[in-house]
Write a structure and sequence with these properties.
Layout (H helix, E strand, L loop, with lengths): L13 H5 L6 H16 L4 H4 L10 H23 L11 H8 L6 H20 L9 E4 L2 E4 H23 L2
Antiparallel strand pairs: 1-2
Helix pairs in contact: 2-6, 2-7, 4-5, 4-6, 4-7
Amino acid sequence: MPRPEPTEYAPFFAGYVGLVPEADVMPAMAAQLDEVLAFLRGVTEARSAVVHPPYTWTLKEVIGHVTDGERVFGYRALRFGRADTTPLAPFDETLFAKSADFNRLALADVVGEWEAARRSNLYLFRNLPAEAWARSGPVGADAVSVRALAYIIVGHARHHVAILRKRLGA
């Protein structure tokens, strides 16, 4: 499976795709599940509720945001992978995070929700027919391919987990 070309996603997502140098995204997606879970399971409930300036979200809110992205990008991959090219709207990450109120949840529940979303996406991408990976559809003013969405999912999580590690000195 070749890497996505820059024409397969909006310029905004180039940074996330660039964080995935692997030629095959699926082993990276699977390995990331274990890596992130090991990291997050070492974080205490107290540390998960702290905001570290200049950042404005707690660890719970960041993981909740990564979960929202996992679901939204996975849904896009499902729709386009099934040859449905109905235009999809972008999502407002700030509205999602505010409306979810992740801080009211136990860290284990926030982490468990991300794990469930990732496992679901692993099944989705593993079971796609080969021709589905090249399919694409419109999101807002840009198009995105299924292949690019897999890279975006992994890169998005890498981006945010790297920031969390820095914040926690881990």
